[in-house]
From TrEMBL:
Its cofactor is Zn(2+). It holds the Pfam family H2TH. This is Formamidopyrimidine-DNA glycosylase. The keyword rRNA processing does not apply. Residues 211-243 form the FPG-type domain.
Length: 243
């Protein structure tokens, strides 16, 4: 244990509750990972923030960088909770559903149905980008992901939610799954994303484009990508395709 500030449960309770236990299953909702144990009332909750990760490694191997919390297993392996920016949190809960309800966390981006997404958007009267970034709407969509979703769905980030048609929301639903599945498949290595993704504009230093100027333009229509601020967050979009 390296930094007690990352704990939402005091260290003594955490240690006493988990010592000798087994991890039996997991459930993820957005950036929250719930680890079930062989005791039904003891559930480990991990929140990964923007940069959190896990590393499973043998005890004979050097401890990974930023592994500020480490779980040791009887088989000689360790599980490191990677916290580069210390925005991550870890602690115990006794009910996943109660925790999600108390924190007002919506369905995960890969699990939300079209009808659920439609209902969430229809009850809000705001700009679509802040609505999608609100974890009450759908869990797990960060800033760049929402920009990518809106780009793939050809919807302007400042579009008012009441103006969205059922077809536009359907396109959003498809785009959410496509973007998340792409990120998972390439383990968020942006340069490996398809060339038609907006992410190459945001991360142009790591862009696969041979021409360094190419990253500034829409990969579909060639229009210069616009940069603005929506809901207090830096936002990229194509002014021609996202009207």
């Amino acid at each position: 244990m390296e930094d007690h500030k990352l704990l939402t449960t005091d260290f003594a309770t955490l240690h006493e509750s988990l010592a000798g236990r087994s991890f039996t299953d997991t459930r993820r909702v957005g950036k929250n990972l719930f680890v079930l144990t062989d005791h039904p009332g003891i559930i480990l909750h991990m929140h990964f923030g923007m940069t959190g990760d896990l590393a499973y490694y043998h005890g004979s191997v050097e401890r990974p960088r930023h592994a500020r919390i480490v779980f040791h297993f009887r088989n000689g392996f360790n599980l490191g909770f990677i916290c580069p920016r210390k925005f991550e949190r870890i602690g115990l809960i006794d009910s996943i559903d109660t925790y999600l309800q108390r924190k007002k966390i919506g369905p995960d981006g890969l699990a939300i149905t079209l009808s659920e997404l439609t209902a969430q958007i229809r009850r809000r009267k705001s700009l679509i980008k802040p609505v999608l970034m609100d974890q009450r709407t759908v869990a797990g969509l960060g800033n760049w992901i929402v920009d990518e979703v809106l780009f793939q769905a050809c919807i302007h980030p400042e579009r008012s939610t009441p103006t969205l048609s059922d077809e536009a929301i359907r396109q959003l639903h498809v785009a959410i799954r496509r973007v998340l599945e792409t990120a998972i498949r390439h383990e968020a290595t942006y340069r490996d994303f398809p060339m038609g993704f907006l992410i190459h504009v945001r991360n142009w230093d790591d862009s696969p484009y041979e021409d360094v100027e190419a990253h500034k333009f829409c990969p579909r229509c060639g229009t210069r990508i616009a940069k603005t601020e929506v809901g207090g967050r830096t936002t990229y979009f194509c002014p021609k395709e996202q009207i």
